[in-house]
Structure formats: C-alpha cells, structure tokens
Specification:
about 90 residues; two-stranded antiparallel sheet; 3 helices; about 65% helix; about 5% strand; mainly alpha
Length: about 90
C-alpha cells in the first residue's frame, strides 16, 4: 500500500500480486459493491458512521476489520449466486 505524501490530496493505492488471494478479494469486493445496491449503501453508511467518530487512521483501519470479516462471507455468497469469477489473463 502507498499513501500519498501530498497533505492536500490523500490517496491510498493498494498493489496486489496478480492471481493472489488478495487480488481476488479486491476484485470480488469491487464487483459486489457495484452489483449490490443494498450492500453498497450499508458499507457507505458504516463508513460515514465510523468517520464521524474515529479520528486516527490506525483506529479507523482497525475498526473496519470486523465489518470486513462479516462482508467476506456475504461477498463469497454473492459470487456463488452471480457466477462471478476473477478476470483471466
């Protein structure tokens, strides 16, 4: 992960090895969020709530982990129902 050094424009870039478990998770999560309006709104509301009460980046990242553990199950269930698979090549 890379965090931008320009304090006027915060950017986080995650780099994943092609074909790795993290790569598959990232693409699955992205596509699930794009496809499932309700899941996307729940995630957005969770992030808004969290941002309103957590000020330190490390606390914010740690507080998101339980949500992501639960979301993993939902995302895998979505990919089974939808027939999703990561792109080849």
């Amino acid at each position: 992960m890379h965090g931008n050094a320009d304090p006027g424009r915060v950017v986080h870039i995650h780099v994943r090895e092609h074909g790795s478990e993290g790569w598959v998770w990232s693409l699955r999560f992205r596509d699930w969020m794009r496809a499932d309006d309700e899941a996307r709104e729940r995630y957005a509301q969770f992030k808004r709530d969290l941002a309103s009460r957590v000020t330190r980046t490390t606390d914010y990242a740690a507080a998101k982990e339980p949500w992501f553990r639960r979301a993993h199950t939902d995302a895998v269930s979505w990919d089974s129902r939808s027939g999703w698979s990561p792109p080849s090549g």
